[in-house]
Specification:
Length: 287
């Protein structure tokens, strides 16, 4: 091991220790891609669990179809080889087989369509959401509004690499933001999404099973319910322009208490807190 490398590791240990001591990372980093990851990320929401089980069902169906078609192909090559059939058959059709190869694929498609539509409707609308977050895709950053908490706004921009190293070294490169969207764990949150400017964006967090295309002038809906606290990451998934690759999505999932405190803090900062809560009672400017 070279001296440089030892120094690098030592540096990382010190930074990690400082981070822990300062409580900079109260939540663990959970939803992040890993090297050599080959499959889906783990499912962090009920929707993603269902996405994965539909995928597993489809995998079984397509594997069986592939094996069956390969078997037919090999059988036909062997059974109808010229050497075995010196005189060609004059068969033109077989009604039973023709009906079978029409009806069987229809049945397979119906078997696929039923769970597929169920999942589509399940992920479409939140039943009994605790509150709503409005996600807006800007050129090129995200804003999160909390209309049920006084409609304060969180602007979420990518941290330039130099700042990330200084401020949030534990965060993954190109995914770290200055301010994350914050949600409480184990709570159903309705996500409505739109965009401003002249571009569509995609609010996508793979482990949440959500991929909402957000469009100027329209509202699209989805929902999340994340079981465990932690940081989760995603990226804009519509090619939206110049800085498409630099508008990551970072979600911090916290306990309900921490969420309530965070909301109070945000409301105060936005001049939305009730006057009795504010030490110096001044009229909020231009609200
Ligand atoms: Cu975008």
């Amino acid at each position: 091991m070279s001296g440089k490398r030892v120094l690098g590791i030592l540096g990382m240990v010190v930074i990690a220790a400082l981070g822990l001591a300062g409580g900079a990372l109260a939540q663990p980093i959970v939803g992040v891609p890993h090297d050599w990851q080959m499959n889906f990320p783990p499912a962090y929401t009920p929707v993603m669990e269902k996405v994965e089980s539909l995928n597993d069902l489809l995998l079984v169906i397509i594997s069986l179809i592939c094996v069956f078609v390969l078997g037919l192909l090999l059988y036909a090559m062997w059974r109808f080889h010229a050497a075995r059939n010196p005189v060609a058959t004059t068969t033109t059709h077989n009604t039973v087989i023709e009906i079978a190869w029409t009806v069987v694929p229809i049945l397979i498609l119906v078997v696929i369509a039923i769970p597929s539509f169920r999942l589509l409707y399940y992920s479409d609308k939140a039943v009994d959401a605790a509150f709503t977050i409005k996600v807006t895709g800007n050129q090129w950053y995200w804003t999160y509004n909390y209309p049920d908490h006084g409609d304060f706004t969180v602007e979420s921009r990518i941290l330039p690499e130099a700042d990330r190293v200084k401020q949030k070294p534990q965060m993954p490169r190109l995914l770290a933001v200055d301010e994350e969207m914050v949600v409480p764990a184990g709570t159903t949150v309705r996500i409505i999404g739109t965009a401003v400017g002249n571009a569509m964006h995609g609010w996508t967090v793979p482990g949440f099973g959500i991929k909402k295309t957000v469009i100027p002038g329209r509202l699209n809906e989805g929902w999340i319910n994340v079981k465990e606290e932690g940081f989760y990451f995603g990226q804009c998934s519509q090619i939206c322009g110049d800085n498409h690759s630099f508008m990551p999505i970072a979600v911090r999932v916290v306990s309900k208490d921490v969420f309530d405190k965070w909301v109070e803090q945000k409301k105060k900062a936005a001049g939305l807190a009730p006057a009795t809560d504010v030490a110096s009672v001044t009229a909020p400017a231009n609200r």
